[in-house]
Amino acid sequence: MSGIIGSMSVPIETPPPDAPTRRTEIGDESRQRILDAAERLFIERGLSATSFTRIEQEAGISRGSIPWHFKNKRGLLLAILERAMILSSIDSSDLCGRDGLREAIELTRARLHRPQAVLLASLLSESLQTESETHGRYREFHAQTRARFADLIRGADDIRLPGGLDADRLAALIFGALIGVHLQYRIAPDLVDLDQAITDLTNLIDAAVEPRLSGDNVAAGDAMARE
Fold first, then answer.
1. How far apart are alpha carbons 74 and 170 in whole angstroms?
2. Distance CA 123, CA 161 (A)
3. Least confident of 21-35, 72-86, 113-127
4. pTM value?
5. Residues 148 and 101: beta-carbon distance below 8 Å
6. 37 in Cβ contact with 55 (< 8 Å)
7. Which of 32, 65, 221, 224 gives the lowest tally of CB atoms within 10 Å of its CB?
8. What is the CA radius of gyration of the chain?
């Protein structure tokens, strides 16, 4: 009997090739799959209606992987929010002047059509509460975006602001208009044309912001104003 037992090979159960394992799910690829799935579900179903189980099914991962990466649902939400804000940010480092301001608005237009913009809009009401975990991050994101617009306006040699209006206040007006139009569009896309509204906003800014005169033209302009 012992000889028979000794010669028997004990089969080892191995998962199918496509089955996820803990080792393969600890890396960046697993984290990315979770973020992608959770983002889709948060946009489609809302935060409260999306469970860990549903996210795991959507991502094709095994149970327990989400807490491993994000600890809890709030941690996952903040990670998604951070990624959405990065994807929604504009890089104004290579922009300048009136054309640069227009280009910054165009970049924002493109980002408002991304799915991440829906997520940011849907979580905006929660961030209004100062004790909310998302409040500080929204505050920072909005401040950074306003600062980018303000720096463009302030550094433009071909922009002269109307009396009483400074770069920071104009930046707040521009960013506020973009957020407001986007929210209206998401609520009533049949009534609000996002692209046309942003085009109209750009035209309004062009009409309100005067070209800044330079050199001899400044003196000529002042003389004409006195006449």
1. 35
2. 34
3. 21-35
4. 0.74
5. no
6. yes
7. 224
8. 26
Looking at residue 72, its amino acid is: N
Q: Which tokens belong to 164? A: 């009483």
For tokens 């960013």, the residue is: 175
Q: Report which DSSP code applies to 160.
A: B
Beta carbons of 152 and 92 less than 8 angstroms apart: yes
Say what the pLDDT of residue 93 is. 79
Residue 212 carries which DSSP code? P
HSE (side-chain half, CA atoms, 13 Å) at 189: 3
Q: 146-203, pLDDT tens digit by residue? A: 999 999 998 888 888 888 899 999 999 999 999 999 999 999 999 999 999 999 999 9
187: CB partners within 8 A, 6+ apart: none
CA neighbor of 91 nearest in space, from 156, 136, 167, 145: 145
